[in-house]
Structures are given as structure tokens and as C-alpha cells.
Design goal:
Layout lengths: L1 E5 L17 E5 L2 H11 L4 E2 L3 E2 L3 H12 L2 E2 L4 E2 L7 E6 L5 E6 L15 H9 L3 E5 H6 L2 H16 L3 E5 L10 H12 L4 E5 H8 L4 H10 L4 E6 L2 E7 L2 E5 L13 H13 L5 H16 L34
Parallel strand pairs: 1-7, 3-5, 4-6, 9-10, 10-11, 11-12
Antiparallel strand pairs: 1-2, 7-8, 12-13, 13-14
The structure holds adenosine-5'-diphosphate (ADP).
The site of adenosine-5'-diphosphate has 18 residues, from strand 12, helix 9 and helix 10.
């Protein structure tokens, strides 16, 4: 999406502009986009799937993905369309508010008739792991969701792995009931669930993290990660429950994209052979960097790849180094 955010504090506005409104900085962001960028920076080969328009902003998004070494060959550009937009506002106490214009977003047409569904499916089949977000699923059409679920069943039977973050955003769903039903369908096709307790509370009314873990385990997920802001991350894997401390971050500037960055650190390490426990540590390090920066994407030259420390020499053996997500 196109992002418009107030200029960072300390920025000197152009004195010739006297609108009484803050100057806005334009960039690009989005949940799966943010995760794709940080996974690619960890050295894992990444292909990104969405639909764009043919306007200058769509072209810029493609250029940006390309500059992050992300494969864009499966991205279709719909004539006459342009990407969704969102705006960030800061209240006096620094709280951030988001307003979205995504009703016309081309990504809503993912896997619908008239788009290149067959091509997309054969592209996805080549991946070792597919990462999905509940936001993408919420904006997809009903038939397209069913087609994606069907595809995921076959993909997993053929040995593919699915990672999923439910990223519950109530306004995107026609009702909480629909959200619960569809999210559950996708959880049943998930190998690595990267969930946030806040979302679990909003979607299911959970009071305690253990309730979330118990319910999600029943969906048959083998690797279940529960993020809880600054609280320890919980991992349920192979019947064992582990809590991994989140190192304190002294300069929390902006928590937008913390969960996306965590997911990238986790998957970047995990797909290169690190254990789930060490991948959580990588996720925490990636998120810590991102929350210390204003905006979801840290410029390349200011970002340290945080997956390396989690990789044992065995983990980066040649046979795992070319993992594709
Ligand atoms: P989301 O962004 O999806 O709401 P969380 O708020 O749970 O997800 O945060 C995801 C991760 O970001 C946490 O697991 C942690 O690694 C990091 N994080 C978030 N908030 C803080 C914080 N205040 N201090 C340190 N780390 C944080």
C-alpha cells in the first residue's frame, strides 16, 4: 500500500507551506510486504504475490521489491488500477491512528476469475514455504479463498509448508463469525502459526494465553508461536510449551510492523535451519530494530540482519541455503 505519515519530529517544515497541517512523508508498506522485505534481507530467496495497477505508484512498488532482491514475476498488473492507500495520524500523546482507503485495492482480486490463477498456482507450487496473512484472506473474495484453501491442501500433501499470521482486523470482515470460520479453515492448513495474543483476544475473547494455545493446537498446528508485545513469546511444539524472554527495548519509537518484523526474523532463521526457539530470538531481534525506527521499513544501510546469530554452522548447510518462501 501507499503510506502517508506525518514527518518525523525534528524535521524542519518548508516555511513557504502554511497549511496548518503536518507535512506528510510518502512511502510503501503493508503487513506481508514488510515481512517479505525482512525475510529477503536474511538471505532467503523470496517471491512476493499480489496484484498491482499500472500507475506510477505500482511501478515504484515493483522497483522497490526488485531492489530488495524479491522476485516479482508472479505479480499481475491490472490496467487502470492503483494500489490501496493508508494514512497515519499522531494524537498529542503520540498514539497513532490509521485510516485506510483499500476498497479499490487490486489485491482484492487475488485468485479471482479473469486473473492469471493457473499461473499463480504453478508459481506457488515451486515454493518450499508459503507465508499468508489474515489481512490478505480478509480482503479476498469468497470463491478465491476457497480456491486458495484447496490449493494449500494439495500443496501440503506434496510436502509444502504453510506459515500463517491471523492478523485480525475486525473492520475488514463482514462479521466476527465469518472471520472465526475462515481463520480456522486456514489454521487447519497451517504448519507454522505466528499469532498475536491481542488478536486472539479480539477474535475469540480469550482471557489467558493458554486458552489461545490450547484452541489452536486442536487445529493440528505443529509449530505454534504466540507473540505478546514485551511479554515473553510462547512456543508450543511437539507437546512442549516454552516461554522465550523478549529483551527490553529502551527506545520504543513506533511499534507499527513489530509483528511483521518478528515473523520475518523467525522465518528467515527457521527456513535456514535454526530451531524454533532460536528463531524466536531472531524474531525478537528483528522486531526490536523495527520498533526503534519510525516507519515499518528500515533503510537497508541502517538494518542489521538478525537471523545470523541464530544459525548454527549446521543450519546454514548448502542444502537449506536456497529455501524459497
Ligand atoms: P503485533 O505487532 O502483531 O501486535 P506484538 O505487539 O505482540 O505484535 O509484538 C511482536 C513482537 O515485537 C514481540 O514479540 C516482541 O519481539 C516485539 N515487541 C513488541 N513490543 C515490544 C516492546 N514494547 N518491547 C520490546 N519488544 C517488543
Amino acid at each position: 500500500m501507499v503510506e502517508l505519515a506525518p514527518q518525523a519530529a525534528g524535521h524542519t517544515p518548508d516555511p513557504s507551506v502554511r497549511t496548518g497541517k503536518p507535512l506528510l512523508r510518502q512511502s510503501f508498506a503493508g503487513d506481508t510486504f514488510n515481512t517479505a522485505v525482512y525475510i529477503a534481507r536474511s538471505g532467503v530467496e523470496v517471491s512476493y504475490l499480489t496484484l498491482l495497477g499500472d500507475d506510477p505508484y505500482s511501478e515504484e512498488i515493483l522497483t522497490l521489491l526488485h531492489s530488495e532482491r524479491i522476485d516479482v514475476s508472479a505479480i499481475e498488473q491490472l490496467p487502470g488500477r492503483c494500489p490501496g492507500l493508508y494514512m497515519i495520524q499522531n494524537s498529542a500523546d503520540g498514539e497513532r491512528y490509521f485510516t485506510y482507503w483499500r476498497g479499490e485495492s487490486p489485491a482484492r482480486a487475488l485468485l479471482t476469475p479473469g486473473t492469471q490463477c493457473q499461473l499463480v498456482k504453478s508459481h506457488l507450487q515451486k515454493m518450499d514455504c508459503i507465508y499468508l496473512s489474515g489481512i490478505s484472506i480478509a480482503i479476498m473474495q469468497r470463491d478465491a479463498r476457497a480456491a486458495l484453501l484447496e490449493f494449500l491442501r494439495e500443496y501440503r500433501q506434496a510436502g509444502g509448508r504453510v506459515a500463517f499470521d491471523s492478523n485480525y482486523r475486525p473492520r475488514l470482515w463482514e462479521s466476527p463469525d465469518t472471520a472465526r470460520r475462515v481463520v480456522l479453515d486456514f489454521l487447519q492448513q497451517t504448519d507454522i502459526a505466528l499469532l498475536t495474543f491481542e488478536d486472539e483476544q479480539a477474535l475469540w475473547g480469550d482471557k489467558r494465553p493458554l486458552q489461545s494455545l490450547k484452541r489452536n493446537s486442536r487445529a493440528g498446528i505443529s509449530e505454534l508461536v504466540l507473540k505478546r508485545g514485551a511479554e515473553p513469546v510462547l512456543l508450543q511444539q511437539g507437546g512442549a510449551l516454552t516461554a522465550v524472554e523478549v529483551p527490553p527495548v529502551s527506545n520504543v519509537v513506533d511499534t507499527t510492523g513489530a509483528g511483521d518484523a518478528f515473523n520475518a526474523g523467525y522465518l528467515g532463521a527457521r527456513l535456514q535451519g535454526a530451531s524454533a526457539h532460536d528463531s524466536i530470538a531472531a524474531g525478537n531481534r528483528c522486531a526490536a530494530q523495527v520498533i526503534g525506527y519510525r516507519g515499518a521499513i528500515i533503510p537497508r544501510d541502517q538494518y542489521n540482519d538478525c537471523t545470523r546469530e541464530s544459525l548454527s554452522p549446521v543450519g546454514i548447510a548448502a542444502d537449506t541455503a536456497d529455501t524459497r518462501v
